[in-house]
Amino acid sequence: MTAVASKTWPPPPMSGWRLVVGSVALSTATFMNVLDVSIANVSIPAIAGDLGVSPNQGTWVITSFAVASGISLPLTGWFAQRFGMVRLFVLSVLMFTLVSWLCGLAPNIETLVLLRVLQGVVAGPMIPLSQALLLGSFKRESSGMALTIWSMTSLIAPVVGPVLGGWITDNIHWSWIFFINIPVGLLAAGLTWWIYRSREAPTVRRPIDLVGLVVLVVWIGCFQTLLDKGKELDWFESNMIIVLAAIAAIGFVFFLIWELTEDHPVVDLGLFARRNFWAATLTISLGYSAFFGNLVLLPLWLQQHMGYTPTMAGLAMAPVGLLALVVSPWVGKNIQRYDARWFATFGFAVFAVVVILRGQFNTDADFNTILIPTVLQGAAIGTFFIPLFNLALQGIPPEKISSASGLLNFCRITAGAFGASVSTTLWDRRAAFHHARLVDQIDPARVGGHGMLDGSMDAGASLALLNHMVDQQAFMLAANDIFNACAVLFCLLIGLVWLARPERAAPPAGSADAGGAH
């Protein structure tokens, strides 16, 4: 694979059909990547059963991918400077496609997990590089649209994934959740190479920071495994979790010290010296943590305690994209005209309203009641991600865009995993709390009056039914607690976003004279 570095870097913005085709190719690859994470979640029971392992062992199909992807994300900048953004992106897409095919053919769980590790490694660079290449393709006044395209593809995929994964698993075979990547990946790689090979960035041969790389692999691997296995092992009641936490903490501190003093760091932590970058990265990470926690918690509640099938739960989440599809293009078009912080403020306010509405749910809530906040959430998505990515990448030199995007997305995705783990753990613990309180308030005389404990129903069946009813109420109350806590967090984030300071004096990133990054 050879590419000709652009004679002028950064290259001028694209236009016409080349811009359309390039945007479609990059967006398709991003969509495939993000979809692959969520589409596999609902297929774990089928995969585990087919390969003869327990569901807990089957979850390593998800965990292994997340750990490997988390490690490779912050390394994107170094590899992009060493090999070129276009080459690295196309190679990542092709490798992702090849490994997807092999995953579908895996004969046992050990092989599948090993392949998912490899798939996670090659998937990491795809997200930040697609963002960087898209930003470099648009004119300054249209760079917000690039962020719109990227944000929509990466945020709608987690909603589509569970529905599509459930349908494929129920009607075809779980292996097809991997096989469907083959035509998509080949098309995306081919189109990207055709459009972008003449826009390759100059490469820089830098020494390999082996110490930083090894420490990065160790602490991120331990931290991701801790997040994925913490709930199953009851967190710090487990010696394994304690050891993982200690290694992750020590490794993280050592990594910070090493990278800040290393001449050629594998991760450019100097980006956090930029006010807009650290403020926007912190804000989007906390916001995404709450958003993703809701995205995980709501379907679990619907399926486990409201009698929804996986497909119906997916349909209850799917309309989140409706308003986002309407609002996001408008935000992208006008992001240069207005202060991005006002867009983000509106987004957080809508998020707060959404979770407040969910905090009022009860076990009698019908499908339409559950749907209303989901539809409203689309407006929040459309005004949250685009402005914050805009602020974070504003003014960053073009040669550092892939590094900044990789670091930003690593923080965002890691925060999402943390949010999911914390939400589900707190949900269980608050449910236990509410269960105990509800049991204390049960009046045996009133229960008996309904025939449950007065002999007209078998005692075992009566207690089982009663416990089911208490459980349903307890988990509903626990979910309300989580939703209300998220409302407080979203309100606090409105203040945090105003720590950023939009750079209006210089041309916004994303223009031809600013390297195509915004």
Which tags fit this structure?
518 residues, mainly alpha, Growth Hormone, Chain: A, 3 domains, 21 helices, disordered C terminus
In terms of DSSP E residues, the strand content is under 5%
CATH class wording of the largest domain: Mainly Alpha
Can you count the beta strands?
0
Number of helices: 21
Give the averaged pLDDT, no decimals.
82
Q: CATH H level of the largest domain: which superfamily?
A: MFS general substrate transporter like domains
Number of domains: 3
Which structural category fits the helices and strands?
A: mainly alpha
- What is the annotated CATH architecture of the largest domain? Up-down Bundle
End-to-end gap? 29 Å
Low-confidence stretches: 505-518
The gross shape turns out to be globular
Q: How would a crystallographer describe the biggest sheet?
A: none
Helical fraction equals over 70%
Helix and strand succession?
HHHHHHHHHHHHHHHHHHHHH
The CATH topology of the largest domain is given as: Growth Hormone, Chain: A
Estimated radius of gyration: 24 Å
